[in-house]
Amino acid sequence: MTDPATDEQDRADMARLVNAQDAALNDLMARHGQKLFHYLIRLLQDEAEAGDLAQEAFVRVYLHRARFDSRQRFSTWLYAIATNLVR
């Protein structure tokens, strides 16, 4: 179940990130980093590779921040990025 407050924080942080406030990425990583890492461990069965792909997922978030659709959930976008990296 999703927390509406978290969704709003995510949207606000993505808006900040698009507006060149790079510290917003730290907030997103703090909120989603551990869960994403554990998700990737379950998929990959390799902690080192999961850590690398979690970092790469956030790099992709940063690089493609302008593509984020604020009508969607950030977590869905993040996990789609991570899942595509696994493939």
Describe what you observe in this structure.
By secondary structure, this protein is mainly alpha-helical. It contains four helices and no strands. α2 runs antiparallel to α3 (47-63) and α2 (23-44) crosses α4. The radius of gyration is 12 Å and the shape is globular. The termini are far apart. The model has no long low-confidence stretch (mean pLDDT 96).
Chain-wise SSE layout:
Elements: H1 4-18, H2 23-44, H3 47-63, H4 74-86
Main attributes?
87 residues; mainly alpha; 4 helices; 77% helix; globular
- The residue-averaged pLDDT reads 96
Find the structural class using helix and strand composition. Answer: mainly alpha
Helix content: over 70%
Distance from N terminus to C terminus (CA atoms, Å) equals 26 Å
What does the radius of gyration come to?
A: 12 Å
Report the biggest beta sheet as strand number plus sense, adding barrel if it closes: none
Listing every helix as H and every strand as E from the N terminus to the C terminus, the arrangement reads HHHH
Estimated share of beta-strand residues: under 5%
State the total count of DSSP E strands.
0
Q: Based on Cα principal axes, name the global outline.
A: globular
Instruction: State the oligomer.
Output: single chain
Question: Which ranges are low-confidence, i.e. pLDDT below 50, for 5 or more consecutive residues?
Answer: none
Q: Please count the helical segments.
A: 4
